[in-house]
Design brief:
about 350 residues; alpha/beta; Rossmann fold; Dihydrodipicolinate Reductase, domain 2; 2 domains; nine-stranded mixed beta sheet; seven-stranded mixed beta sheet; 9 helices
Length: about 350
């Protein structure tokens, strides 16, 4: 029997809620250490999951010679942590967005050449999205003309949520980076490079109180509306919002010269040639809910984390330097360039900005 893949986790919140139960479910791995900003919380997580090492200093975990480092921390910490992991022989999985700055993403992408280095865009593991992509590649819709996507999340306590790194643009907080980045990645994965972007970002709650009751200005976005021009000539429009309560809308639809496809709430794919009735389209792989993996978190992101991590662990165990369909550091770099262009566009009133 092959030895289990030795994993070091940088970051505790998402790890505790989603990644640790997912890793326990899929097997073939051993979490050898967890690092979190809150040392007591890291100790509690380690005790719950039988992890031998817990610390508030992530560098200590690199001394344990992990096979895989998973980084799930605020965005402003990614560069230094990935840089440190790349000084070892470990494979790396970094949460999105990749980095704050384009130059940082360029450097890390160059340094990671020749090893398995991935970004956590788990929506690529949605069987319905994979089916949609394969249908487009097979010419089902003909020449792609237009894509419309919405990712409007029901956010409990949105108006009173405490001030944190999520509220700070310099730390990578905001809806565009948190959720819009998934749409950007899927668009490029399915349809090719994005050439130009026009964007409007909004902050609806201007000030928030921190845990001590001190008010701060909020600099991150609650809402993002982007128009994109693809190199293929197709146009894309998408909206991301964290500001609505009681409303949740996941929609990804596209029209081509010969037909249309629509994915609703990540599970219901329908499509038809023009002039025909829209009908359900089944994917080859069944969709499984988070509960199947012992994950308490709800929604597609939690549900898709386990199959994605299973593929990553298998790739590391097999000594692979690539994982088919997974987002690479180069994909993460392309995404950072588009996020940067979108923010520059919004600052100038939504004018078109090149993503190159």
């Amino acid at each position: 029997m092959a030895a289990p893949v030795r994993i070091a986790l940088f970051g505790n919140s998402h790890a505790e809620a989603v990644q640790l139960p997912a890793l326990a479910h899929i097997g073939g791995n051993e979490v050898i250490g967890i690092a979190g900003y809150d040392a007591e919380k890291a100790v509690a997580s380690a005790e719950r999951w039988g992890i031998k090492c817990s610390t508030s200093n992530w560098r200590e975990l690199l001394e344990l010679d992990p096979d895989l480092v998973i980084i799930t921390t605020p965005v402003d910490l990614h560069y230094e942590m990935v840089r440190g992991a790349l000084d070892t022989s470990a494979s790396v999985l970094c949460e999105k967005p990749f980095t704050l700055e384009v130059s940082q993403a360029e450097e890390l992408t160059e340094l990671a050449q020749g090893r398995l280095a991935l970004i956590n865009y788990q929506l690529r593991w949605n069987p319905c999205r994979r089916k949609m992509r394969s249908l487009c590649q097979a010419g089902f819709v003909g020449k792609l003309l237009h894509v419309r996507a919405d990712l409007v999340l029901d956010t409990p306590g949105f108006a009173t949520r405490p001030y944190s790194w999520w509220s700070q643009a310099p730390r990578g907080g905001g809806g565009l980076g948190a959720t819009g980045t998934h749409l950007i990645d899927n668009i490029q994965w399915m349809f090719g490079p994005i050439k130009d972007v026009s964007a409007r970002l909004e902050t609806f709650v201007k000030r928030r109180e921190d845990a001590q009751g001190v008010e701060h200005d909020v600099t991150s976005d609650d809402f993002a509306e982007l128009s994109l021009k693809l190199e293929s000539g197709a146009h894309v429009h998408f909206t991301v919002s964290l500001a609505l309560r009681g409303v949740s809308r996941w929609l990804f639809e596209l029209a081509g010269s010969e037909g249309s496809l629509c994915l609703n709430r990540e599970q219901g794919l329908v499509g038809a040639k023009h002039g025909e009735e829209l009908l359900p389209i089944e994917s080859e792989v069944a969709w499984l809910p988070p509960e199947h993996y012992g994950i308490q978190g709800r929604g597609p992101f939690a549900a898709l984390e386990a199959p994605f991590l299973a593929a990553v662990v298998e790739a590391v165990a097999g000594g692979q330097t690539q994982l088919k369909e997974a987002a690479t550091f180069a994909d993460g770099l392309a995404n950072v360039r588009i996020l940067d262009a979108a923010r520059r566009s919004s600052l100038t009133g939504g004018g078109w900005v090149s993503c190159r």
